[in-house]
Amino acid sequence: MTPQTYLRHRRAYEIGFWLLLAVINAAGNSITIGIDLGRLGEPVAPWEPWVWEFSSAATWLALLPLLLAFDHRFPLRAGKLRRSVPAHLAFTVPYSLLHVLGMVALRELAYAAMGQDYDFGDWGANLGYEYLKDVRTYGAFLATVYLYRFVLRRWQGEAEFLTEGREDAAPEPVTDRFLVKKLGREFLVRVDDIDWIEAAGNYVTLHVGERLYPLRETMAGIASRLDERFARVHRSAIVNLDRVREIEPFDTGDARAHLVGGAAVPVSRRYRQALKDRLG
Question: Domain HTH LytTR-type: where (predicted)?
Answer without folding.
Answer: 178-280
